[in-house]
Amino acid sequence: MGPGPPRGRFLYHDAMFTGLIETVGTVHAATPSHAGLRLEVAAPAWSYRASRGDSVAVDGCCLTAVHDATPQGLLTFDAIPETLSKTTVGSFRPGRPVNLEHAATASTLMGGHLVQGHIDGTGEVESVNTTDGWRVRLRLPDALMGFMIPKGSVCLDGVSLTLALVDKPASCIEVALIPVTLEKTTLKTWQRGARVNVEADMMVKAIVDRLRGLGMG
User: Which of these CATH numbers, 3.30.360.10, 1.10.443.10, 3.30.559.10, 2.40.30.20, describes 23-102?
Assistant: First the structure.
């Protein structure tokens, strides 16, 4: 990877993320527009100030800043119909907390896993068990379960996580959340029935796609 997208240019295909959330912002406004949805996110405590054309993962969705961030940390994005059809962004309302991460650069600590910000679909929280640690069970579309492997990686609402359990007959996965994840992300707000953005591991997707192309399931 290079040093990141040049300031002031729109680049749509080369942004990468790590799934390590840098701050939690708040949806300031979500307004229907000719492009789909104009989204404004307030992140006053974030030292990063996006410039026009920069890529930011918002709850895991790679969005492009349409303006320079204000000095107060207000970020503005356009979510197009394709994004709205594949993610939870269309359900965003003012006051909703969202996980934020700016695009990785050559100096970024790779403590999570490589994430594209291209959401594969949404899952639904089935249960949250806090009696012994913090373990969450989610139901995924059958089409995504083929990319879920035991102890593999998954990105949920922009957070890089390790799969604690893969229950393919039930189309469910489980993740165990550590205290620092609960402290620094929105995942502590998950409740039964919540919709979650899911991005499968890109290496697993590439391998599965190649095997399918060879007629191997």
Answer: 2.40.30.20
